């Protein structure tokens, strides 16, 4: 009953919006991406989307939990079956065990709560004085989001997953955590300053880690960590504006992040390397594609009038009235996130043009007119 | 105007840059063997392109179950050992040049690139590196060769700084800087003097000695028929190639390069797409998958972004696997590197030159150097073009020493009249049949394939510089320290030889 009220009052159709958007990405992909074993691929993806749809629309908390856990299975099969490298094995183990172990306490809490209160929907009316139970209840969602200290599974899983797996992970599976946090309605009651500190500093640290990445997908994965810590912050502030900001951030991040993963896959499919050193100056090869890189990077960093910008604005409006320190640090967080977005775009699109794709200049100079090789060396310094 | 006509298509809206490039390339390709109306055959063949499960991604559900350990143990045994499936840079050939490229790549960008070195025989029993005499000299006639060897000497002198790993003992390269002594007869004296001027201009320290000075400096030489000599005073000499190779390999392991023991048996192209612009249809292909056969006979795939061919005397064959040589258009030009067998004889002479003996090169091509302190000398010579020995094995021909080398040796150094051959071995030069100089740089069409081969006997001394050059090309897209543009592969297409006069 309360859940239904929440959905209508706070317009929680955003989860379903996200799902639909991502599904449309998937439809586009399945035409463009030549996956091996396409039938199994489609089956697993469809089952994943069905489970996610169910997660977002179910009225019962137990069912929400069940589908939340079930969505792990198709994702693991995607990573293990279609992922590229042998490193996908530890990546999938990290993913699986982080999620399972952190959500087991939540199961106990649901069962306890249901047996005591005979209602499957968690209501924290301030009866739970034990901080530990509070933490355990939200631990699962924090790991899924992820918060900084429980984020290690994310870069591994994103890098090793195939492109569609990465897109679904980034766009929707992370938001399951945010959705769960919103449902549990716990963060409004306990103003948890430790968690605020962890989110702020964790976000700043992951932005700085982003700037040191040599792998394109890894950078986008760490940017998810930074944005999601912003989401937790918004919910912690327990203000309508900041709640709105979290929701908007989740939606916009879903769009940007999955778009960026797809774009990085387009480069990977041509150059077969994810390293920044070998995927650079792409603007000379794919000029129109770099337009999309630029747009998505701008959307990611919160350039007006993107959704990201509105979420950050709402956050600052709400947070200014509450705590100056948070505003200052989250301002640094926003600035650093634009730093790595610019780094991402400029490294991949601009930069010295790759030798491995340089234009053949001998046609321009005329092959048969050359007399000696001691002629100008500017041929191969052609940039 | 003529240039405008060629550049204009690049700026016209109809063509993308990539397709303009493919147009330009096509113009120089041989289209006479294509039938009219055949241009659309490429398109047609792609329409019914079924996606076949390739060896890289077998059945995913099986793969999942296997990796979770839920399938039978026998299935597990078929999974490959530590051979990686994907890498950024693959270096074909793990000798000194290959290890040098890997070193410079990883040194500049430790985690930025995944580097895999594929070497046929990790014991290096037949590799040119370990069978080499180990000399290093700056006495070349081409300035770039001089500079490369100068850097090689500097690398050897500072090997402790370049190749040290934190917890391990520093490497010992055993560089003996005793110099090279090139002797010239009357006929070659002028060329020698010219070369010495060039060498000194570029930083080498080579002294020109007259016959009298030679006699007083090296009394054991007979200066009959010798007009002058060029003696390298610094940075020349010999060193232990095996030590350099192991030091490089150890440093590479430390930096995270992976060495794979296997032989490259095939290279597959990745079909990138069909560019159809204007009237020309060009299929974009690029070499992408190596097929490596390990000792147990199984063939494993390895997908790479950039390949560097440092396979020494087998470079020509490896390049053929990539389609370079024997194809259409520009692919008809092969990498002109083939093996040439060279013999090295270790002789013992009681009254030989002694400790103050550089690596002496006679005008006839015979060379010798001191080995150790007990009166051993390494002797060798390059045979004439028509007398090249067969290269299918590494057997030594003793007659070659008796007939071709000993007489000239005894003429030059009378005390070598009595000597005893202690042992001998043979090794291969990666001989560049075009102009006996290195080939460095990418292939003009397969731009993700780099060459660092064809050194024709100078590979060991030029390895540090060549490795650094190729690493700079891959990472920075241009030469930053030494400009080795003249060694590019295109010189073969331009019919432009780089003639080096001082070859041994």
TrEMBL record, chain B:
Range of residues in the leader sequence: none
Protein name as it appears in the record: FAD-dependent oxidoreductase domain-containing protein 1
One MF annotation (Gene Ontology) recorded for this entry: oxidoreductase activity
The organism's place on the tree of life at top rank: Eukaryota
FAD dependent oxidoreductase domain boundaries: 88-473
Pfam families registered for this protein in UniProt: DAO
Keyword list, A-Z: Oxidoreductase
GO cellular component: mitochondrion
Biological processes per GO annotation: mitochondrial respiratory chain complex I assembly
């Amino acid at each position: 009953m309360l859940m239904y009220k929440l959905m209508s009052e706070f317009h929680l159709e955003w989860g379903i919006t996200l799902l639909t958007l991502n599904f449309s990405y998937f439809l586009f992909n399945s035409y463009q991406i030549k996956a091996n074993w396409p039938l199994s691929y489609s089956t697993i993806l469809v089952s994943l989307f069905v489970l996610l749809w169910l997660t977002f629309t179910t009225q019962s908390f137990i069912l929400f939990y069940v589908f939340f856990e079930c969505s792990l299975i198709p994702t693991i099969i995607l990573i293990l079956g279609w992922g590229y490298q042998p490193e996908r094995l530890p990546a999938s183990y990290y993913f699986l065990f982080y999620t399972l172990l952190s959500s087991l306490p939540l199961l106990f809490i649901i069962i306890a709560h249901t047996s005591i209160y005979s209602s499957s929907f968690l209501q924290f009316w301030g009866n739970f004085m034990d901080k530990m139970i509070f933490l355990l209840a939200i631990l699962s969602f924090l790991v899924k989001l992820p918060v900084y200290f429980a984020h290690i599974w994310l870069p591994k899983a994103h890098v090793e997953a195939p492109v569609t797996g990465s897109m679904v992970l980034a766009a929707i599976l992370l938001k399951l955590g945010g959705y769960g946090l919103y449902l549990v309605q716990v963060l409004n009651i306990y103003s948890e300053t430790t968690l605020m500190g962890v989110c702020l500093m964790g976000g700043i640290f992951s932005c700085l880690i982003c700037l040191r990445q040599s792998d394109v997908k890894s950078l986008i994965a760490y940017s998810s960590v930074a944005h999601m810590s912003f989401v937790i912050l918004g919910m912690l502030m327990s203000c309508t504006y900041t709640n709105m900001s979290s929701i908007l951030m989740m939606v916009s991040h879903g769009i940007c992040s999955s778009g960026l993963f797809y774009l990085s896959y387009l480069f990977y499919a041509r150059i077969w390397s994810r390293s920044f050193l070998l995927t650079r100056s792409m603007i000379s090869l794919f000029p129109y594609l770099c337009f999309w890189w630029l747009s998505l990077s701008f959307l990611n960093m919160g350039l007006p009038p993107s959704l990201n910008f509105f979420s950050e604005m709402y956050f600052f409006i709400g947070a200014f009235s509450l705590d100056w320190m948070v505003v200052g640090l989250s301002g640094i967080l926003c600035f650093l996130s634009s730093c790595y977005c610019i780094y991402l775009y400029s490294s991949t699109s601009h930069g010295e043009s790759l030798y491995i794709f340089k234009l053949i200049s001998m046609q321009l100079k005329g092959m048969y007119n050359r007399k000696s090789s001691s002629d100008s060396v500017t041929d191969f310094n052609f940039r | 105007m003529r240039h405008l006509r060629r550049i204009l298509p690049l700026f016209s809206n109809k063509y993308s840059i990539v397709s303009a490039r493919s147009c330009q390339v096509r113009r120089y390709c041989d289209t006479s063997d294509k039938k009219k109306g055949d241009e659309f055959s490429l398109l047609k063949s792609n329409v019914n392109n079924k996606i076949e499960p390739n060896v890289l991604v077998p059945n995913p559900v099986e793969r999942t179950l296997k990796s979770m350990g839920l399938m039978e143990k026998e299935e597990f045994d078929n999974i490959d050992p530590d051979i990686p499936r994907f890498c950024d840079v693959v270096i074909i050939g793990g000798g000194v040049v290959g290890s040098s490229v890997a070193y410079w790549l990883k040194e500049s960008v430790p985690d930025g690139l995944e580097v895999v070195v594929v070497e046929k025989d990790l014991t290096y029993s037949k590799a040119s590196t370990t069978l080499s005499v180990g000399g290093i000299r700056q006495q070349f006639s081409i300035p770039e060769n001089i500079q490369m060897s100068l850097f090689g000497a500097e690398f050897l002198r500072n090997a402790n700084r370049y190749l040290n790993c934190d917890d391990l003992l520093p490497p010992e390269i055993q560089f003996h800087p005793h110099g090279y002594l090139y002797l010239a007869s009357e006929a070659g004296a002028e060329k020698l003097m010219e070369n010495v001027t060039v060498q000194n201009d570029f930083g080498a320290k080579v002294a020109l000695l007259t016959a009298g000075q030679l006699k007083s400096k090296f009394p054991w030489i007979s200066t009959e028929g010798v007009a002058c000599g060029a003696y390298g005073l610094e940075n020349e000499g010999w060193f232990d190639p095996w030590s350099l190779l192991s030091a490089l390999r150890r440093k590479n392991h430390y930096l995270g390069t992976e060495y794979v023991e296997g032989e490259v048996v095939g290279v597959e192209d990745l079909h990138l797409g069909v560019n159809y612009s204007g009237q020309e249809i060009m299929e974009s292909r690029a070499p992408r998958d190596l097929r490596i056969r390990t000792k147990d006979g199984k063939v494993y795939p390895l997908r790479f972004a950039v390949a560097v061919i440092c396979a020494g005397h087998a470079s020509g064959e490896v390049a053929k696997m990539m389609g370079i040589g024997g194809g259409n258009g520009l692919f008809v030009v092969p990498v002109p590197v083939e093996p040439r067998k060279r013999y090295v004889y270790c002789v013992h002479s009681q009254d030989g030159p002694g400790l103050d003996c550089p690596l002496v090169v006679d005008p006839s091509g015979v060379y010798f150097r001191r080995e150790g302190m007990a009166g051993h000398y390494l002797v060798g010579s390059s045979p004439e073009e028509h007398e090249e020995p067969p290269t299918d094995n590494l057997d030594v021909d003793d007659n070659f020493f008796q007939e071709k080398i000993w007489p000239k040796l005894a003429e030059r150094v009378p005390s070598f009249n009595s000597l005893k051959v202690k042992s001998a071995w043979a090794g291969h030069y990666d001989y560049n049949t075009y102009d006996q100089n290195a080939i460095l740089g990418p292939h003009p069409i397969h731009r993700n394939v780099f060459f660092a081969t064809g050194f024709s006997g100078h590979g060991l001394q030029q390895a540090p510089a060549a490795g650094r050059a190729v690493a700079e090309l891959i990472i920075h897209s241009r030469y930053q320290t030494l400009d080795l543009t003249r060694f590019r592969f295109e010189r073969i297409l331009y019919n432009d030889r780089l003639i080096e006069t001082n070859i041994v």
